[in-house]
Hints:
The structure holds 2 protein chains of 2 kinds.
Chain A: E1 14-17, H1 21-26, H2 28-40, E2 44-46, H3 56-60, H4 64-78, E3 83-86, H5 89-102, H6 109-115, E4 116-118, H7 119-126, E5 139-143, H8 146-151, H9 167-173, E6 179-181, H10 196-199, H11 201-218, E7 222-225, H12 228-240, E8 246-249, H13 250-255
Parallel strand pairs in A: 1-2, 1-3, 3-4, 5-6, 5-7, 7-8
Helix pairs in contact in A: 5-6, 11-12
Chain B: H1 6-10, H2 33-42, H3 44-66, H4 71-87, H5 89-102, E1 106-110, H6 113-126, E2 131-134, H7 138-143, H8 145-150, E3 155-158, H9 161-169, H10 185-196, H11 205-222, E4 225-228, E5 232-234, E6 239-244, H12 248-254, E7 258-264, E8 268-269, H13 275-286, E9 294-298, E10 306-312, H14 316-320, H15 336-340, H16 342-347, H17 358-364, H18 385-389, H19 396-409, H20 415-428, H21 431-447, H22 450-456, H23 458-461, H24 474-482
The structure holds iron/sulfur cluster.
Amino acid sequence: MAARQAHNRGVMPTVALFVPCYVDQLYPQVAVATLRLLERHGCRVVFPPEQTCCGQPMANAGQAADAAPLARAFLDTFAGYDHVVAPSGSCVAMVRHQYPGLAPDHPALQQVRASTYELCEYLHDVLGVRRVEGRFAAKVGLHRSCHGQRELRLASGSERQVPPFDKVKTLLSTLEGITLVEPSRTDECCGFGGTFAATEEAVSCLMGKDRLDDHARAGAEVITGVDMSCLMHLDGLARRERRPVRILHVAEVLLGEAA
Amino acid sequence: MSAPSDAAVAAGAGAPPPVHHPGGRQAGPYPGHPAAAARFTADVARAHWHDESLWFVRVKRDRAAAQLPAWERLRELAEQIKAHALANLAGYLEEFERNATARGATVHWARDAADHNRIVHELLSARGVTRVVKSKSMLTEECGLNPYLEARGVEVVDTDLGERIVQFRGEPPSHIVLPAIHIKKEEIGALFHEKLGTAAGASDPKYLTEAARGHLREKFLAAQAGITGVNFAVADTGAVVVCTNEGNADMGTALPPLHIACMGLEKLVPRAEDLGVFLRLLARSATGQPVTTYSTHFLGPKPGGELHLVLVDNGRSALLARDPFRRALSCIRCGACMNTCPVFRRSGGYSYGTTVPGPIGSVLGPAQGPGAHATLPFASTLCGSCADVCPVRIDLHHQLLAWRRELVAGGHAPAGKTLALRVTAWIFASPWRFAAAGRLARAALRLLPRGLVARLSGAWGRQRELPAPPAESFRDLYRRTHGRP
Ligand code: SF4
């Protein structure tokens, strides 16, 4: 297990990079940006090659029996690392909130749950980053993906009456040249929803277009967010209608334009 | 125990023949949420109008909630009081019955919808009542009381303005607090022109409301009995509390000698002081008002009158025994989960095919029987906004997920989708299979003509492009640049 942990106190932790299955296959640049961002902040990053998928598509479709083996494999793969970091809010929410029901007896369950983080959450809460070096000169709208928002509490949210905070926005706002623009509905769902995107195509696409319109009215040239799945849906809609907006994962934006 | 049947409501005698109104309930058998929602969203302008109307209420709710510094604390208290009341329900029901009876009310127990309807009808017919006014009650909707009474020669007039509008159209409410939210004021103008003789083309809300008031005034004066729902039943005083904005429950019960209040078993709160929590939360959550205009405590019958309380189970005690769904019985029917739901706002209340629609309806619907309303728990992105607005903190999106598991385990999910995800899980179970399948899929995406890919990608590709596939996956790139770790 030595390779899975920093050898002595005071040195930066070893981070196991978890790359969600569809990011691995369709958006390798997002995984690269995540890797480089973590390294830039001093982490030693490894990519355990046994990883595949956290099981979320099956679990959220109600197929617990199909998700459970993937949950166990995930726990095997990521057991013992100082930290596990993923460029995804919903996959991390899956590990944190659904694994206890899917792999209750796995010996690494609690350890892995406690050490798995969404990328911005990790930078903000664990590494204590409050200023990201880099330049991103554009008008950027932040799409607050629901699972990051309401399962991981990356931000206070529009519904709850608690002191306001927003970890992702805090990080983005320190980039040089960036102008953050706010849509009128700050944290409405984009309509992706996993299999919902296909089974409820009509509502899903209308929700997505409404988000694109809201960001467009706010003047966003770039829409970013913590979950590439939501962004894939928004990007698919935007490209079909040839909308003049770029969709980028937050890791790509935080890395800065020069990346 | 017979489940409340919406079909029975639809087919109820006395209901006018189905007329299709834009955005209204569709005639014919319920096609499941995806198809019903697709029909509603096909009129994009209307779906947007519906969305904006409800979002306006959501924003009002946010502002009202923000004005109470203790908002989140109140929600926690409400959750705890309801959990306690439900865990000790039998005791509180008995205490309530004792206290209500001591104040001169008569308590009736109904096992199911049929029981409830029979009890109400017997009370009416024993007193020769043929004209009834009713204020808003989702329970009587659930039980199909109106068609039951109408078939037996009793005229039932819904006196809540929104409910009267949908009653004129032969529709059930599309929302539990805003029953006619799906109808535009111009359409109400046309309806009132036909039913009440208002001026053709008139759509001024004030004018139309005035006309409805005049019409309802006659009904109030002629009524021989008033039926109301119940928002809260207080165990330690025996009171039932009814909250309205129009005062129609008060009008409907002040004049006639007979008041029948119908309630589900779950309406119990232990103490009168608990209302200090619930009344603060209810109106703010429902419409963004600090309090409903009228919150009336009925403590026994008025002098010379009769007060009958019908307590209905209709599946509630079965739900109480069922973890995790028992928490759904805490619902105070504020409608906030509907107003915030991005799906509900765009698919309309009728797309759920249940008496109570939206997130809470999607939890309650499937409890009515195996496979009943099987599409509803999937009619959600699990965004979780509902759980964060719910004044009694029901974990609605987690309950929807729990229903998905039950429906899949019971074989009530579409077989094709289940199989596809099973195969995917099998591919994911091996890093080698995953890498190989990924390579194949990316190559196919790159090599096949764009039109064919769009068609093969089915529901995804009709309105969305697929991602442009990269030549190399991250794992391949990592191995190439980092070697095997
Ligand atoms: S579930 Fe909660 S938010 Fe929805 S109607 Fe009931 S009390 Fe209101």
